[in-house]
Amino acid sequence: MSVDAKTLQGRLLGILKQFHSICVDNQLRYYIIGGTCIGAARHQGFIPWDDDIDVGMPREDYEKLCRLSKDRLPNNLELRFYRNTPNSPFQFAKLVDNTTTLIERAYLDYVEGLYLDVFPLDGARDYQNNAFERLRCNRIWFEKGMIYYHYMTWTKSNLAKKALIYIAKHSDVHKMHKRVEKHMMKYAFDESEYTANFFGAWKEKEIYPQKYLGTPKLYKFEDTELYGPENIHDYLTHVYGDYMKLPPEEKRVFKHNYHYINLNQGFHDYIGQSDKDLS
Questions:
Q1: Of residues 21, 216, 29, 63, the one with CA closest to residue 13
Q2: What local confidence, expressed as pLDDT, does residue 136 receive?
Q3: Sign of torsion, CA 138 242 126 214?
């Protein structure tokens, strides 16, 4: 089932508005980050070809969100990740719309709904000028990659990567999750001069002075306002360079590789129907 960009973005915006209300009601800090933040700065809404939402939360606020009881969330939303969903391949929390169904090509064995990525933001040290911090961060990225390899269901790999995938698939993934989180949480967000989004796509570029985030500030996003970095230009320039420059037309495409998406059926119903078909 295919979905056009405007319809998909409309559903994502609905989840994002609900997330904003949850955070305001529970006094939780958050920032729109990544492509969502570029969208706010450059388009005052979605990047026209973007198909996901990225938000970051200081670790303390992130953990409070993860501890919220189900009755504090709207009925259509579930917070899902490895801690509360045994077969989840995701190390960070996703706020999932349970009235939809989504299967990604990288995880063909995992069924979920349309979601919003919620990344924890941890304290860090100066990556460029601290050799010990570079070692710590590279260990985190390696172990995070091994968890990804443990769950992935398809890949085009060379021999070395196939060996890592074999090791990852025969490792205790729960222990890997716990170990990498322990390393990430070494430094407290509010006591650090630098912050890190270890789940960001740009690795060392996702480590920057915490003053770039500062106090969350409201920005226009489509027909609403959302919290983003106080010093949005400094943050986006550090991570992306000239973020106001549009990419070449051939790169203005949806990046997610969906195997299946249905915005009219809940994933619990989909899983139940699939189980009946197999019995």
A1: 21
A2: 97
A3: negative
Provide the residue type at 230 as one letter: E
The rounded average pLDDT for each run of 10 residues, N- to C-terminus, in the chain (279 residues) is 87 98 98 97 96 96 95 95 91 97 91 97 96 97 93 76 89 93 97 97 96 98 98 98 94 84 96 72
Torsion of CA 159, 170, 81, 228, to 10 degrees: -40
Do residues 198 and 181 lie in contact, with contact meaning Cβ atoms separated by under 8 Å? no
Residue type for position 194 = Y
Please give the structure tokens belonging to residue 18.
Answer: 């609900």
108 Cβ partners below 8 Å, 6+ apart?
Answer: 153, 154, 259
Q: What is the spatial distance between Cα 132 and Cα 101, in angstroms, rounded to a whole number?
A: 43
> Are the C-beta atoms of residues 127 and 207 closer than 8 Å to each other?
yes
